[in-house]
Amino acid sequence: MSGFCVKPLRSGSSGNLTLVEHAGTTLLVDAGLPSQRGLASALSEAGVAWDDIDALLVSHLHTDHIHPSAVACCARHQVPILLHEKNLRAFSRRVLSRSPQPGPLRTFGAEPFSVGSIEVRPFAVPHDAEGVTSGFLLSARAGGRDVRVAMATDLGSGGNGLYERFIDSDLILIESNYDPGMLQRSHRHPFDRARVDSDVGHLSNEQAGKFLVRVLQESRKLPRAVVLCHLSADHNSPVVAVGEVRRILSRYGFGEIPVHAARRDGPSPRFFAMEAGER
User: Fold this and answer.
1) Cα–Cα distances in Å, from 211 out to 70, 145, 276?
2) Which pLDDT score, from 0 to 100, does residue 103 have?
3) Fewest CB atoms less than 10 Å from the CB: which of 119, 135, 140, 256?
4) Are strands 4-10 and 81-84 parallel, antiparallel or unpaired?
5) What is the pLDDT of residues 189-201, one digit of tens each?
6) Residue 159 has what pLDDT?
């Protein structure tokens, strides 16, 4: 696959799996599907297999982002699992203990590192998972410039300078989990609704839109696309999420930026951070 592209294969509370490809490097970000067969099927839909994967990058320890089934697949195919160093103990207790066999395991901290042709810059985001929840700035050198993909798919707020991580990105993947009205009208327990709406829960459509506006106002270039991720099945829909975010972007003069919603139960298109012909 030429170009630098990202393809969400699943995005939601039932499982997250995102494929990143550039210059011969194939990286997975999260693998939260609950069966080995389901994981293999999702990869096959994108034309890849476990033997093509160079590493699995784990954002946090909720089971919709890393599942013991993925650990077993990584062990079988010797795919390194990369996770934050502060998550290692909890990962061993909660995930490795439920997997039939461990795989290659490597940790990262705050410093950037490389997987093949892709540089990874992790950054902490506010979320209520045990340990550290990370977003990632993925970059590569192509066409005489740095190509940047910024992604954070579970976060409760966009404060504390987080928007700075997304400035000047060629492609942005950001959580847009819920519509506040739909959340309040739902039949979920009040505790669950409060957790989703908290600063360590999930980002609403309006919060995602306002976060993007701040990013774009500080950027010297506009992204080729914005991809909304982790939409709730109960409290959101692609039409509602995309419509709200587009409305907010348009109000501030950014209505020309394409906005898409990643699919929950099937593969989304490949989104390119650079033209396929760039080198």
Assistant:
1) 32, 25, 29
2) 76
3) 256
4) unpaired
5) 999 999 999 999 9
6) 75
d(CA 230, CA 175) in angstroms, rounded, equals: 6
- First-to-last C-alpha distance (Å) of the chain: 13
d(CA 128, CA 62): 9
Q: Could you tell me if 245 and 212 are in contact, meaning their C-beta atoms sit under 8 angstroms apart?
A: yes
Query: Which amino acid is residue 51, in one-letter code?
Result: D
Q: What H or E segment, with its residue span, contains residue 260?
A: strand 259-261
Is 4-272 CATH 3.60.15.10? yes
Environment class of 150 (CB within 10 Å of its CB; exposed 0-12, middle 13-18, buried 19+): buried
Find out whether 170 and 223 touch, Cβ atoms under 8 Å: yes
**Domain residue ranges in the chain:** 4-272
Residue 68 burial class via C-beta count within 10 angstroms: exposed 0-12, middle 13-18, buried 19 and up: middle
Predicted confidence (pLDDT) at residue 118 exceeds the cutoff of 80: yes
**pLDDT tens sequence across 124-156:** 999 999 999 999 999 998 778 899 999 999 999
Instruction: Please report, for residues 39, 241, 248, 278, the alpha-carbon distance to residue 18 in angstroms, rounded to integers and kept in the order given.
Output: 11, 20, 26, 23
More confident residue, 239 or 99: 239
Residue holding tokens 């997250």? 16
Query: How far apart (Å, rounded) are the C-alpha atoms in residues 253 and 238?
Result: 22
For 20-74, the pLDDT digits (tens) are: 999 999 999 999 999 999 999 999 999 999 999 999 999 999 999 999 999 999 9
